[in-house]
Amino acid sequence: MSTGVNTGGQGDGVDRVDTLDLVTTRAWIHAVALAVSAHRDELTELDAAIGDADHGVNLQRGFAAVEAATGGAGHAGAGHAPETVGQLLGKVGMTLISSVGGASGPLYGTAFRAIGRALTTPEADGEQFALALHAGLDAVRALGAAAVGDKTMVDALTPAVAAFDAAVTAGGDLRAAARAAADAAEDGARATTPLQARKGRASYLGERSIGHQDPGATSTALIFTALAETFERRG
Ligand code: ADP
Ligand code: MG
Question: How far, in Å, is the centroid of ligand 1 from the Cα of 39?
Fold first, then answer.
């Protein structure tokens, strides 16, 4: 049985994590649901400043539906239980699309669906997951037409995917790649503060959107931080 932990060793006393398996993916999604709940008010306050004050509530509703649909947090789960990482993440995406009304539901939903579709083997290694993350980013860009600098989730997602890819290419394991991605996403989210929004609801504010961190970029950082912490907890 695979534990997702490869005991090949890196010479520093910490085992490499070279596989994203179903158990770890479930733990990640559960950690995202917890993080979204814990940060709901903060996300809502950010959205109150430059949007319509629903981002935290939107994501909390979405990830509660995800937990119900995928059997997290003690729910029985509806329909067929996902058997692969790709199926699970695809189901996360479908559920977000159908349960979140705001812009972020279709955007995150499409991203998770694209990530799931890209993962065709039961478990994923670092290279496969990097490719899947690229597919997720491409899907968000195709749907929302936002570029880096437009003050959206793309400002956190783009550097996160690049950092993940670079870490894997440099020989880093999934734990190291996820931590690099989380740090890059947090930097990207913070860097949205001085920007003027050019996409989404915040763009209606024009220059008044300057001086506030983008809520979607902030939630993207939470999602990658949850991934890094999930790998770190699994040792
Ligand atoms: P809504 O804007 O419909 O109220 P949310 O509040 O849930 O939806 O999500 C707002 C976030 O969605 C923004 O902070 C931004 O990061 C993201 N967003 C909005 N429009 C786009 C877009 N076209 N491309 C990428 N991200 C976008
Ligand atoms: Mg909103």
Answer: 17
